[in-house]
Design a protein that fits this description.
The strands form two sheets. The chain has a five-stranded mixed sheet. With 290 residues, it is an alpha/beta fold. It is globular, with a radius of gyration of 22 Å. Helix 1 links the parallel strand 2 and strand 3. The chain has 14 helices and eight strands.
Length: 290
């Protein structure tokens, strides 16, 4: 399927992996150029059976995507124009009532049948970070990446799904994203990774925790009360409670995998040393070798 007409994107497909490189200087803004191209790509790749994984990265070593176009705030015609262009990029896909185009594009990415991965080696703020939060997985380069939603100190709130999706991501959807990585990747995680993955909120040295909490509380207290109230009200609409029927779905899925092939595989694993003390010390390498 051709993708070479999408301005601001460089797309290559190799062995079932589509690499989508944001290349829209100077900042990879989520503007009236990049949003239509992303929407056009998403609604083509959805039907491309030759693509099983989509990786999003940036040609810019400093910026994944700086944020949305500030013209959305300063020019009353900018957002309607970007919306019209994005709708035209996938005219057969309606934008749901109550969604703006930033939310719609990201939600369409989240519903792709392919696994989506974000590779972050620069700054991703505002709408750029909101886009990333809808992907199945995200991996950030230590010492090079930075992610933020700066809207509160700009006297607005994240309008590309940031308030809703941040809460979703840090709750059930964050578990979904990281569960996909850990369940499909089958890697062992240490304490530091547990922190980064949100199994704990963050690890703070005992002799620094009082100052840390005080600093955070004071920073929030400096924000306009109206901004804090707006963000809290939006986040409160999200509940982390897992419905009981989810467990029934999981249980049914588990037993559906009890096949002859699974039993044969289990025997191979036991023969290779799984469920012995020595084998369990090196379990990931053993399983990778089978």
């Amino acid at each position: 399927m051709p993708y070479d007409d999408l301005t601001g994107l460089r797309i290559t497909v190799d062995n079932g992996v589509a690499t989508v490189t944001l290349d829209h200087p100077p900042l990879n803004l989520m503007d009236g150029v990049l949003l239509p191209s992303l929407r056009g790509f998403v609604n083509r790749v959805r039907h491309d059976t030759g693509v099983r994984v989509v990786v999003f990265d940036s040609a810019d070593p400093e910026f994944f995507s700086a944020h949305g176009d500030m013209a959305y705030l300063t020019d009353p015609e900018a957002l309607p124009a970007a919306t019209a262009a994005a709708i035209a990029a996938a005219p057969d896909v309606p934008v749901p009532d109550g969604m703006n185009i930033l939310e719609a594009v990201s939600d369409e990415v989240r519903s792709l049948p392919q696994v989506t991965i974000g590779k972050i080696a620069g700054f991703a703020r505002g709408a750029g970070n909101e886009f990333l939060m809808y992907l199945d997985m995200r991996f950030a380069a230590i010492g090079r990446s930075g992610q933020a939603q700066p809207e509160a100190v700009m006297d607005i709130l994240p309008g590309g799904g940031g308030t809703v999706n941040m809460a979703r991501l840090l709750g059930r959807a964050r578990a979904r994203a990281r569960a996909l990585e850990l369940l499909l990747g089958s890697e062992l995680v240490d304490a530091e990774l547990a922190e980064r993955y949100g199994l704990v909120n963050r690890a703070v040295p005992a002799n620094e925790i009082d100052a840390f909490v005080d600093r955070l509380a004071r920073r929030i207290a400096r924000l306009r009360p109206e901004v804090v109230a707006a963000i809290k009200a939006t986040v409160e609409t999200i509940t982390p409670k897992i419905p009981h029927q989810a467990y029934a779905v999981e249980n049914a899925a588990l037993f559906s995998l009890f096949t002859d092939d699974m039993v044969a595989s289990a025997h191979k694993q036991l023969a290779a040393g799984v469920q012995t003390r020595e084998g369990e010390r090196d379990l990931e390498r053993i399983l990778d070798s089978l």
